[in-house]
Amino acid sequence: MSQSTEAKPAQPSVAEANEAVRRRFPFDDTRDLEDARRGFLGTAAEGVVKDAEGRVVWDLGSYGFLDRDCPATANPSLWRQSRLCSDHGLFEVTQGIYQVRGFDLSNMTVVEGERGVLVIDPLLCAETAAAALALYRAHRGERPVSAVLYTHSHVDHFGGVRGVITDEDVAAGVPVFAPHGFLRHAVSENVYAGTAMSRRAAYMYGAALPKGERGQIGTGLGQTTSTGAVTLIPPTRHINRTGQTETVDGIRMVFQLTPGTEAPAELNIHFPDHAALCMAENATHNQHNLLTLRGAQVRNPRVWARYLAEAVDLFTSASDVAFASHHWPVWGRERVREFLSEQRDLYAYLHDQTLRMLNQGLTGPEIAERMELPPALERAWHTHGYYGSVSHNTKAIYQRYLGWFDGNPARLWEHPPVEAARRYVEFMGGAEEVLRRARRSYADGDFRWVAQVVGHVVFADPENAEARELQADALEQLGYGSENGTWRNFYLMGAYELRNGPIGTPTATASPDVLAALTLEQLFDALAIRVDGPASWDADITVRWNVKDGDPVTMRLRNGVLTHGTETGSTPDVEFTLARTDLRAVLLGTLPPAALTARDDVKVTGDAGRLTELLGHLAAPDPDFAVVTP
User: What is the phi/psi pair of residue 72, to 5°?
Assistant: First the structure.
């Protein structure tokens, strides 16, 4: 049987469910549409953003199809959200504050000062950030960048910084502001588990999916991720406490630190002279993730709600507009207060009700199926699960408090996926019988069950073309019905890779700038997580690094573990005396051991080949690992 590579139409049950969504919610409410277009000044004449080699990294016109009526292959609520997010251009938020939206997953905010501008959150890549700044200047004049501010430690809020300033600008006195702990979290998240996160992000954001009615239509938070150069300039000034004030180029700012909310290092900013409040990514026009599907540490909804409550108390009486680094602003003091209060109640409700139910013995999946938002919150468009969801957020809260195990000993030591799949398929009468029954479930519209059960057939026999096709069809239908943009992308990416093979990782976040920002401690840790433990059980290698401008570091591989410390009592197999820059180059893999030992300014004592032997025990991460197949 040949396998189709084409997306298919929506099944009648999905089309009917999507139509029911249209009847359920107030699609005639146009306030968000009016807000999203308010203050529009213009957009770029050139429809695409390219890198230095001419490769397109962002296409402003690729979502033009969203102007059409919602088709049966999309949830009308997500279609509405994606339509709002796809508006691109320069917008005036209030006098002196502007946003460039639709040029990347995130927004770039520009605040005008006495001489130049403060740039807040310069997008994900240098190319889109440069295009955004050029658009601002085309409408407001050639003002220099007086300062840059990162609101938090996620890459789509700092990765484009070299599109707006240079190292020379920083050396000349242009400050780069960031919340306390920013650099540690920014680089560690993108390096330690960065390969796995990036691969899963290919599913979450669907950047490689065809865009269209049967493909990628957005993520709910923005449209997708750009694919240009991810950069980083370390911050030069830190915000360390709530209430801290800073003035740059005549722009007065009052800060609220919000660690442990949407990011481990994050802040909100009040601009008293503008009566404007920047909520970073703590309050946007969707329910956010408590555990992002690409993978991360679980966020704390109780803390998140408390910081939102604090923002209401601190700033809403003096804020005529609230804006964020995604989506569109909210104008009017009462509306700002209502918006932030509802966002606060959203996360508090999910937290408290999940804890109530888990203390009654329900498991994460059971809580997810039972959880319903209060009608007043459900009616608010900005609480809808376009990016986070009630389902996976409640499971995240369960995980935060109780972990992966639900307490049932039958699930304490389950077989891994392939071994379980083979047994399931055998118990169910073989692959042919499973597929026969699954096709009947598919015809009945039970796509969740088809995806679950046929997944076993695929993992038992990944070459079974009929199973792959039916699994792809089921995932596709689930995607068509999803209100959540990242769920849709995951489902459609799964279907796409089952039909066409893996596409890999479109956006790599462990860029040279990010790697260069790692401390020596983080670099040693990054090497340790690459050790092939079983292949290194019998190795015992000690290397000492005498850093000319620092303390010596002893690195030892033993018992399959690479440790490091300042212990100098034992005799190493080899000892190097070298500059810190050379040690960093060795640890980053840009300076091979043979080149190191050939350097006249490097002193080597002992067997230099032992370093080569140690590095040979490191395994390279796989950015193309399988997701929907074994």
Answer: -70, -20
